[in-house]
Amino acid sequence: MALKSVRQRRMQANYLDIGTAEAENFVLMGTGFTDLNEEPGAQTSSKRYVNDASTSKGITGYEWQAPYTADQIRSEEAIAYICEIGELLKTGADAETDYVIVDLDQKESAENTYHARKFHVAIEVASFGNEDGEMNCEGNLLGIGDVVEGTFNTSTKKFTAKGDTPS
Question: According to the lineage, what is the superkingdom (predicted)?
Fold first, then answer.
């Protein structure tokens, strides 16, 4: 029997929009990030009916977040953007942006284009830590609203929602 291959973390690229309301600017969250995971956080409900001995459960929503840990490499634009939010104690819309997860193992028909999901997120900076004299930052990307499925072109750094025409 052949061994099954497990999907490698490097097959998923993460991009953060550090641009303005007028012009998006997606940058790669790669170098410097030592941990970046996805937690869908399914919310459930349950009910037991009179004719059943067991409870029936269902999914009612999601409390999506993506915990991160990053070394403070300020030349990395995504890290500088995140650190500024925490250092200046930004709130509300000033601490929100778009985040895209790109599946590099799911190529689409157009060149350099892959399946992707876009989330609007609030950036929570929970701590600035010290790891053997090197500074890091930790927190969560907190989901706002529903995920948007689409494609992402890794050359142009443009997200296209499913059903939209690429610009």
Answer: Bacteria
CB 123 within 8 A of CB 82: yes
The whole-angstrom distance between residue 154's C-alpha and the CA centroid of its chain comes to 16
* pLDDT for residue 166: 65
CA–CA gap between residue 19 and residue 45 (Å, rounded): 39
Task: For 81, list phi and psi in degrees, rounded to 5.
Answer: -65, -45
The amino acid that residue 31 corresponds to is T
* 17, 24 Cβ separation under 8 angstroms: yes
Cβ contact 141:118 at 8 Å: no
CA nearest 107: which of 154, 149, 147?
154
CA distance 80 to 21: 18
CA-based torsion, 155, 156, 161, 166: positive or negative: negative
| H-only helix segments in 25-166 | 77-87
For 102, the 3-state DSSP assignment is strand
Q: How far apart are CA 75 and CA 31, in angstroms?
A: 10
12-30 pLDDT per residue, tens: 999 999 998 788 999 999 9
